[in-house]
Amino acid sequence: MQLYNKLSAKEREALIDEAGEDRLTLSFYAYAKIGNPHLFRNHLFIAWDQMDVLGRIYVAHEGINAQLSVPAKRFEEFKKFIDNIYFLEGVRLNIAIEHDAKAFLKLKVKVRDKIVADGLNDSTFDVTNKGVHVDALKFNDLISDPNTVLVDMRNHYESEIGHFQGAIKPDVDTFRDSLPIIENDLKEHKEDKNLVMYCTGGIRCEKASAYYKHKGFKNVYQLEGGIIEYARQVEKQKLENKFIGKNFVFDHRRAEQISEEVIANCHQCGKACDTHVNCANEACHLLFIQCEECAEKMNNCCSTDCMEIAALPYEEQKALRKGKGNSNKIFKKGRSEVLKYKS
Q1: Which of 199, 266, 279, 291 is catalytic?
Q2: Would residue 273 show up in a list of annotated catalytic residues for this protein?
Q3: What's the CA angle centered on 3, arms 114 and 20, to 5 degrees?
C-alpha cells in the first residue's frame, strides 16, 4: 500500500493544470494526546491521498498541525472525514483569504517529536491549559487598553512584512527562541497586565498561552484563529483593521495581503517592498525580500556569487553541491551579510 508521495512537484503541477479545477487552501491544528502518531499518520495519508489532498502535515504525541490544499468539490468529503476523528470534530478550519491551486504540490504527512518545536523539557507543563481565546472584536478592544501588552509570537521575517500596530516583535528566528525572551522581558507584569498574543493561525499562541500560564502569568489571551481568521472577521463584520501589511504564510504564496501598506523594504536596494523570494541558486535557497528591479538585475539571486553559480549548466551546479550539506543560509531568513538592507 502506498504510504508516501510518488509524484514530483512538476508532475503534480501538470496534473493540476490538466484538471483545471478550483482548490481551497486551508490550515488547522489541534493539541491532543495521540497514542500512536505513526499509525495516525498512515491513516491520514491513505485517506487524503485518495481525496487528492496536498500539503504539509505534522503529527506528534501532542497533536496535529496541518497546512493543506483541498479540491473545492471534495471539501465536504474532507470535512466529514475530519469530523469523524474524535479530537478534530468541529475543529476550526482556517480558510485562506487568497487561494492558489498550486499552493502545495505534494502530500507530506510527517511524524515529529512536537507539532511546534519549543525546546521545552518539562513534564509538568500542560499544553492544553491554554489562555482565553478572543475574536476580532474583543481583540481590538483588548489591544486598545493601556493595560495590555501585545506580543507577536512569529519570527522576525514574518513580522517584518506585516504586524499589528503597537505589538512587541521579538527579533527571533524560531518560536523556541521567543518563549524565554518574552518571559524575561515581561516578568514584572505577570499579574498587572493583560498578555495578548497573536500568530498566523493560532497554533503557536495556543502553546505560548499555556506556557505563560504555567509560568505564572494571570491574564493571558490569544487571538482565536490568528491573523487569518482576524482578517476574515474584520471584513465580514466591518471592523477596524489594526493589522498593517501582509500576513506571511508557509506555502508557495508566501503571503496574503491584509492591508495596502508596504512596511518592509527590498533587502538589496532598500526600496519599499514586501515580496519574499528564495535565492535561485539551489545551494543557497536563502529567503529574502527582493523587488522586481533587483530580481531582474540579480537574476533572482541574493548575491553575485550565487548569480555566477545559478548561471552554470544544471549538471555543473549539481556537481558543485555533491557531498555538501544544505547551506545554513536556508534557515537565516534574510540575515545573510550579503544583504545590505536586511532587517
Answers
A1: 199
A2: no
A3: 100
DSSP bridge partners of 149: 195
| DSSP per-residue string spanning 97-120 | SS--TTS--SEEEEE-S-SS----
270 dihedral zone (left: phi>0; alpha: psi -120 to 50; beta): left
Residue 300 and residue 277 in contact, taking contact as beta carbons nearer than 8 Å: yes
Q: Indicate the residue type of 343.
A: S
Question: What cell does 210 get?
Answer: 499555556
Q: Which letter, b or e, does each residue of 287-298 get, where b requires 16 or more Cβ atoms within 10 Å of its Cβ?
A: bbbbbeebbeeb
pLDDT by position in tens, the chain (length 343): 567 777 788 888 888 888 889 999 999 999 999 999 999 999 999 999 999 999 999 999 999 999 999 999 999 999 999 999 999 999 999 988 777 888 899 999 999 999 998 988 888 888 888 999 999 999 999 999 999 999 999 999 999 999 999 999 999 988 999 999 999 999 999 999 999 999 999 999 999 999 999 999 999 999 999 999 999 999 999 999 999 999 999 888 889 999 999 999 999 999 999 999 999 998 888 999 999 999 999 999 999 999 999 999 989 988 888 776 655 555 566 678 889 988 7
Distance CA 183, CA 73 (A): 45
